[in-house]
Amino acid sequence: MSLPVLQRNGDITLGGLFSLHDMVVEPNRSFTTMPPHPRCTRFNFRTFRWMQTMIFAIEEINREGKLLPNITLGYKIYDSCSTPYQALKAAMELMGTKQGSVVEMVDNHKDMCYGTVPVVIGDGGSTQSLVVARFLGAFHVPQVSYFSSCACLSNKKEFPAFLRTMPSDLFQVDALVQLVKHFDWTWVGVIAGDDAYGRGGATLFANEGLTGIQWLASEAWSTASVLSTPTKYHSILQGTIGLAIRRAYIPGLQDFLLRLHPSNTDASEDPFLIPFWEEVFGCRLGVSTADPMQSQHDKPLCSGSEDLQNSIECVRCLPLFWSNGERTACLPKQVDFLSFSDTMGITLTTVALLGSLCTCGVIFIFSCHISTPIVRANNSELSFLLLFSLTLCFLCSLTFIGRPSDWSCMLRHTAFGITFVLCISCVLGKTIVVLMAFRATLPSSNLMKWFGAMQQRAIITLSTLVQVIICTVWLTVAPPTPQKLMPRESAIVILLCDEGSALGFGLVLGYIGLLACLCLLLAFLGRKLPDNFNEAKFITFSMLIFCAVWVAFIPAYISSPGKYSVAVEIFAILASSYGLLACIFAPKCYIILLRPEKNSRKHLMSKTNVQ
């Protein structure tokens, strides 16, 4: 009985061996009648795709006339059923030795001969390839395997005509050994199949002398569906570390696979398409090529509306897509970022706008009482500049909310860095003014001449200019850019802003921290000023709050996942801004609005306690 074959004639016909079934069921032998032929079972969808990929490649070569002009390639493909016996039988038919016929000798001196095909593609399993390679090697007919990785096949004396596109197990075993050494494991158990692939790999691994359970998977099963789908083995095999073959994208292959259908004109010549279709959709067609000994009546008839677009084994979802619960279609992953419509985004936006409104309210109060002693006591120009910078600090937090883009990622960090340095520079200027004013106690002292309005503006300008230079270099060398984070086995794509340069981000924060520490030190030195003039004490409290917030920010930012890290940064900006506003300006507004009798020079310069 001839084996089922998928054939297309051409000027040059390529042979193909594919294990389209995973096992063979041997029939019962009564020894009274002729035994039936063995039956192949458990259709292998991955190998079917490999077979179709070979057909697709041949059709593409034939379509492109420049590759092989005036030559048409054909193919002759057999199912080896994952058994050496079936593989050898198919190889003999490919070489024209069916029913005992002899292959044609071409050159007696070179021991070369050709059958019906000049080359054989396959088989996938190492055990089958060993048998086929010995047979084809006797006639020097090339065999190119796409998945046989047994190191034994590299012996050119024993297998002179064997080639493969798959690396030898020598490399894989070496990688597994390096993995074991890296984790410093002292005991390793090896489980291998009782075939050429398993025995060869286990022997190589044992020869290396290596001495909860952590599974190390070879490429044969590291990407198997049993590891990625909930099964009874999932609790045992989850967390497996393995090696995988690098995937390649073949343009046009997916569309070619999706066009497969039993109603196509050439489907009747394909003995493997109908069994594939019946296995995928769990139905039976009117005319089936299945073994007559296997009952198909327990399956419903196929409706004809089945579509491979919704099948399980054909299409791998793109990186930004995720399979549905039934694993029948690819759905877009949910894009997650801190948006203005989120509850968290709405809350932070409200708090930021409220802070900017409060700052504007303080500006209005100070403008209405600009001639009063409490406003004039500490350089009203610096006070208004500080209030303006605080308003910008509140508003810059809004740039962290919304869908990240190139401009928003660059704006949010630079705006934050520059506005906060401007704010701290103003506080530093106010602190120095307070210290200078009360150190110059003698009427004839000209100490303030060395730190007048021009010098104050120069300090603020130079301090801010340093941060501007840092941000400019940062944006030029490695600017922040939008980044998509796709956690493994997650249906969510997280949009974030990558800092671009950790050094640049660290310098921005470090410079702000340096100015804050300097300001805190100077304010602490001025703590013994007149009791009713509490400017230095208020600045000290504000800087303590500022430093505490940003010290706590660093570990919280590093440990927060996804959009919550952005929320932590916004919270730090708002908390430190509110701390400055409340500690420095709230007491002044209280005196201006509720205790106007204390808004006098005499009260500000007096002492309530005797030191």
UniProtKB/TrEMBL annotation:
Pfam families: 7tm_3, ANF_receptor. Gene3D superfamilies: 3.40.50.2300. Its main location: membrane. It is a multi-pass membrane protein. The chain crosses the membrane at residues 344-370, 382-402, 414-438, 458-477, 503-526, 538-558, 570-593. Signal peptide: none annotated. Keywords: Cell membrane, G-protein coupled receptor, Glycoprotein, Membrane, Receptor, Transducer, Transmembrane, Transmembrane helix. GO terms for molecular function: G protein-coupled receptor activity. One of its GO terms (cellular component) is plasma membrane. It is found in: Cell membrane. It comes from the Eukaryota. CDD domains: 7tmC_V2R_pheromone. InterPro entries: ANF_lig-bd_rcpt, GPCR_3, GPCR_3_C, GPCR_3_Ca_sens_rcpt-rel, GPCR_3_CS, GPCR_3_vmron_rcpt_2, Peripla_BP_I. Residues 344-608 form the G-protein coupled receptors family 3 profile domain. This is G-protein coupled receptors family 3 profile domain-containing protein. It comes from Muraenolepis orangiensis. The lineage of its organism: Eukaryota, Metazoa, Chordata, Craniata, Vertebrata.
